[in-house]
Amino acid sequence: MTLRVFNTQTRKLEPFRPQHDRKVAMYVCGPTVYNYIHIGNARVFVFFDVVRRYLRYKGYDVTYVQNFTDVDDRLIESAKRENTTVKELAERYIRAYFDDMDALGVQRADVHPKATEHIPEMQEAILTLIDKGYAYEREGDVYYRALRKEDYGKLSGQSVEELNAGARVEVNEKKETPLDFALWKKAKPGEISWESPWGRGRPGWHIECSAMSRKYLGDTLDVHAGGMDLCFPHHENEIAQSEAWTEKPYVRYWLHNGYINMGNEKMSKSLGNVVRVHELREQYAPRALRYFLLSAHYRNPISFSHEAIRQIEGSLERFDTAVTNLHHRMGAAQEGEAEPEVRERLASLTGEFEAAMDDDLNTANGISVLHEAVKFANETVARSVVPKGSLAMLLDWIHRFGGEILGLVTAGEEDSLAGEIEALIEERQQARAARDFKRADAIRDRLAAQGIILEDTPQGVRWRRK
Description:
Layout: E1 4-7, E2 12-15, E3 23-28, H1 39-57, E4 61-66, H2 73-81, H3 86-103, H4 119-131, E5 135-138, E6 141-144, H5 160-166, E7 181-186, E8 201-203, H6 205-217, E9 221-227, H7 231-246, E10 251-257, E11 260-262, E12 265-266, H8 277-280, H9 286-294, E13 302-304, H10 306-332, H11 340-358, H12 363-381, H13 388-405, H14 418-433, H15 437-449, E14 452-457, E15 460-465
Parallel strand pairs: 3-4, 3-9, 9-10, 11-13
Antiparallel strand pairs: 1-2, 5-6, 6-7, 7-8, 11-12, 14-15
Helix pairs in contact: 2-3, 4-6, 4-7, 6-7, 9-10, 10-12, 10-13, 11-12, 11-13, 12-13, 14-15
Main location: cytoplasm
Catalytic activity: tRNA(Cys) + L-cysteine + ATP = L-cysteinyl-tRNA(Cys) + AMP + diphosphate
GO molecular function: ATP binding; cysteine-tRNA ligase activity; zinc ion binding
């Protein structure tokens, strides 16, 4: 089945065909690093982490770039409040971002460019836009002539009148029209700034992504992604300036994920209902947060609730238990190839998983298939005789699709305390055989204190973590 994705620009499901056969140039807008990221930010990074993983599973060579906006008004204001420098503030929250994303299982991008390290590339772009008549300088500021680009508004699908009516336009007498946007901002006293042909200043927000994406991925990107809130004005402005600069199409497929709601309201800083990832990590397993962010189709809104996360932790426990049971049975199983019925069922589940993901990257349905696989694994383990080949094939399927693609299943067999736990279980078994039940109970209590639960099964004692 061919992968199809919903292209925001065309508003249609389209077959995914990158410009260079099996190579994919993918750019995802990263955070503005003036604070800890919230759960809405995390939805972008978790979902497109899965997109990259799935594209690689499909055989594509993906180059993945995700930037850091490490200079803008919010960083400048926050640095003043905290009596520190913009650079120190940005570095602190970049470290915090990686702490959060590492916990959520988000793999690092191939390149994480910072805006402040690409000032020459941005100035080159601005100079070209001025030379071509797409930009103009006013008293140290440089603005892009939005209406010079005849198809301005094509991403958001709005007319100039609608854009003017809906835009949050700052009153600025320097602009030729209200929709014009800043490419370069004149420095105010004491602000971080760089020398430029227009005097000391700093870049506008939109130009950084055009400059950095071109440097690392070329003139035309296969995939450009981010939250729906970036569609206008950020991505609209990126298209305008990049296509005027290079005279080539900027992006083949625009992908945007939906919002997170807090109850009946959209999560937003203005409403004061923002939930930070580093706070949630103190309450819940990070994998539960990842599961939650993938549990609805990416273009749909998703409602956050603590009850939903608690229920998800139960699902993850079922995944972990299934993996533990498979490993337990593997240890005592007889050698033998995978049974035909196991091969057939897993082949069917593979088809179902790929069908879900090929239909506009539907992780929610992909997770449903993972649950079916776990259910089948439990049914198989419960049989009295199962050859090692069947167990190994089940483990491989769950790790490939639940772990390597969705990032929801851990390896399971690599437990640094596994040897000690197994030794204590064996000691407990010997104590029970000797009818030393006091000693056996003491060992069980010791393991329980470490979060280890023992279960007596017809195939022997198995253990799992709480």
